[in-house]
Amino acid sequence: MSGLVPDGVTLPASRSERATTRFRRLLAERSYVFAPGVYDPMTAELAMYQRFDAIYFSGYSFAVGYLGTTDMDLYGGAEIADGARRTVAALRKFQLTMAVGDPPSGIPGTKLDIPPVLVDMDTGYGNAFNVQRTTELYVNAGVAGFHMEDQVAPKRCGHIAGKALVSADEMVGKLRMARAVADDLGSDVVIMARTDAYSAVDAPERARGMDLAVERALRYIDSGAPDLVWCELPTSAREPTVTFAEEVRKRFPDAMLGFNYSSSFRWDKDPDPISFDELAALGYKFIFITLAAQHAAALGIAHLYRDLQHRGHAAYVDLQRDEWAEKDLPSKSHHFFTGVPYHQLLGEVYGAGRLGRDVREHQTAPEETRV
């Protein structure tokens, strides 16, 4: 029972489970954990409603959604940490509102587990002391995990030319700092180490390409700090994906790998795109699509806006017709999706009379035209 829902409404037992514990269990139980990329609370809630195992809070998506700009370290650690905090909090609230449903409208409650959220930490936003602060912010935000990369700061997207690397020693120090902070806070947060060595143009080592990527990954695993390693690759080609996994697992057979099914690649042009199951067989345990929500939202919005320019009000009427034809789309009623029924029911318990279900605005339109 919870005092945050009306009597008779139950919540999944997972509500009291730590996100880090759930994420680690999923990694152990599943052949792989897939997470769509999100950039704000709403996209995360939609992913949760579709019952994805986990959610990936993309840095590039955050840069686009928060600043309207590219992924070149143009936001700070405190900014994305706050975005992650608001997203985690929204998912906890969303679990409550969906569990209540809308009884007066005949919509039953839906029990949803809160998916663990893994967040982009870029380079840690500076040196080891910046990593210390950022890790504290992330852990206190309630995220299940984060990844950090070995680029210099300011960094750039892994698929933008001109990447340069810090020394492997500096990266290991950052990873160890992150783990030490998490331990100090009593958190078993999942840490993923990313190397951009495969396509970096500047690095302290003589080696380049796959040799350097494997060498870096092995150094990071050997430090004992990260739980997963990830090599950012420049294309969707199979060969580097296979080679990296095989080379790393020669030394660490149980190593867990991350894979960015990157939105920078034209998978639709690849004659034989690698599947999630194939990646899992190679040891890729965490698979994510960085800008999945960003591209989907931009496509849908662009279609609507173009249509509005040409057809005016009819375009929006058609949108609503399509939207309400969907049988299982909670966002078609923005009042339901944002939890108005929940707030009204709980308002009767904790609030003044005007917060309850019996209060209605004077309407000039028929009841059935309001959403």
Explain this structure:
The radius of gyration is 23 Å and the shape is globular. Strand 6, helix 8 and strand 7 form a beta-alpha-beta unit. The protein has one domain (13-297): TIM Barrel (Alpha-Beta Barrel), CATH 3.20.20.60. The protein has 371 residues and is an alpha/beta fold. It has an eight-stranded parallel beta barrel, surrounded by eight helices. The model has no long low-confidence stretch (mean pLDDT 93). The chain contains 13 helices and eight strands. Helices cover 45% and strands 11% of the residues. The protein has helices spanning 19-29, 41-49, 59-67, 77-100, 128-141, 168-184, 209-222, 238-251, 276-282, 292-311, 313-325, 334-337, 340-350, and strands spanning 33-38, 55-57, 117-120, 145-149, 190-195, 228-231, 256-260, 284-289.
